[in-house]
Design goal:
Residues 238-379 form the Spore protein YkvP/CgeB glycosyl transferase-like domain. Helix content is 46%, strand content 15%. By secondary structure, the chain is an alpha/beta fold. The chain has three domains: 2-125, 3-Layer(aba) Sandwich (Rossmann fold); 131-157 and 234-368, Rossmann fold, CATH 3.40.50; 162-230, no CATH class. The chain is globular. It starts with a strand and ends with a helix.
Length: 381
């Protein structure tokens, strides 16, 4: 097939492109970084000319872009969008109905949600790892020494807007939402926040905005749900990092400033292709608390850890246990306290950790390959 690939700097672009070519497809890439992904005349003109310059069988991108979807629909060219972000931004749904779309989500529950709304061209498709590339990486002694530690975490803490949104709310609303937050914080494997956000609760929150003159702001269920999920994720990640930092040699890699204690060693960001795999391989345990609003799927970071022969220490996710066995391929926890207890245990047992790292890697090689995923995507067209 002749494929036009749109990219704006995604993590998995290089690996996806490599395997597309390995499978015999011809690819041309158009790079562009959107100032506004919903309105951009310059991009539309450039993309339009590219579509007219050759005969393309399909357009592909990592994550879903509304302008690409619109232009593909106008030219009746299949558009395949493989998403590693979840949940998707609400505004994107307006563009899901195009018959040229093929949208692939790694979270099964999110995919089923859109399917239930009538979007039959939204599919569930787990992510993939290029273990061939990871196996070829060579790390210097200085790199290995820099990243050796007991526990590491790469990611962000998530700054939730929840407290700002509830600034003008009364004590009952604040208490009710705090109750939802504390309950969901302690439950893994089932996301019930959406069920507890009633129409009456949303009306009350929006009425509180009107009382202070905020007439242009209206909060919907998804917005409040994501704010609560982000707040929970922040609390969980901060707690785990602080606890791990007090007990073990703990590294934290992030792009944003934070207020964690000095027990946690901050080392700034790392490059996805070259340095991140070194962190995964030479950390004894790789902590990966999933964003709470990812309801069932396996995040890319979790797969990358195991693909680099790192040991994954993760919260319970329904799709993780479909492929991996706790204590054999990875380490799962069902509470924050259990995460700390398991970290202490496995840090004392090098042989078990090495066994888990190898098993997890073998499962990745067997079940999470790019050729398999790409063939499944292309089969839909």
């Amino acid at each position: 097939m002749n494929i036009l690939f749109y990219d704006m700097g995604s993590y998995t672009y290089q690996d996806t492109l490599y395997y597309l070519k390995q499978l015999g497809h011809t690819c041309k890439t158009l790079y562009y970084h959107f100032p506004n992904k919903f309105h951009d005349d310059f991009f539309c003109d450039r993309f339009e000319k590219q579509l007219q310059s050759d005969s393309y069988d399909a357009v592909m991108s990592i994550n879903f872009f509304p302008l690409v979807a619109t232009l593909c629909h106008a030219h009746q060219i299949p558009y395949l969008a493989w998403c590693y972000d979840s949940p998707l931004e609400e505004k994107l749904e307006e563009y899901f109905s195009y018959d040229t779309n093929r949208i692939f989500l790694f979270d099964r529950i999110e995919a089923e949600h859109y399917q239930s709304l009538g979007y039959s061209r939204v599919y569930h498709l787990p992510l993939a790892v290029n273990t061939d590339r990871l196996d070829r990486l060579q790390f210097s002694p200085a790199q290995m020494q820099k990243h050796r530690c007991d526990v590491s975490f790469i990611g962000q803490l998530y700054e939730s807007p929840l407290q700002v949104l509830l600034y003008s709310a009364d004590d009952y609303i604040k208490g009710y939402i705090e109750g939802i937050l504390q309950a969901q914080l302690r439950v893994y494997g089932y996301y019930f926040i959406d069920e507890l956000i009633t129409d009456e609760l949303l009306d009350s929150v929006n009425q509180s905005f009107r009382k202070i003159g905020q007439t242009s702001l209206t909060l919907n269920r998804r917005g409040l749900s994501f704010a609560i999920a982000s707040e929970i994720t922040n609390l969980e990640r901060c707690f785990l990092l602080e606890q791990m930092g007090e007990l073990f040699n703990t590294h934290f890699y992030t792009t944003k400033p934070h207020s964690l204690s000095d027990h946690v060693i901050s080392l700034g960001p790392v490059k996805y292709m070259e340095e991140m795999p070194c962190v995964f391989r030479y950390s004894k345990l790789n902590l990966n608390p999933t964003l709470k609003s990812i309801q069932s799927g396996i995040p890319l970071r979790a797969l990358d850890i195991m693909g680099a022969k790192g040991v994954l220490l993760s919260n319970f996710q329904p799709e993780l246990v479909e492929y991996f066995e706790d204590g054999q391929d990875l380490i799962l926890y069902s509470s924050m306290e259990e995460a700390v207890e398991k970290a202490a245990y496995y840090l004392e047992h090098d042989d078990i950790r090495e066994h888990i790292a190898q098993n997890g890697y073998e499962k990745i090689k067997e079940y999470f390959t790019y050729p398999d995923r790409i063939q499944k995507m292309l089969a839909t067209i």
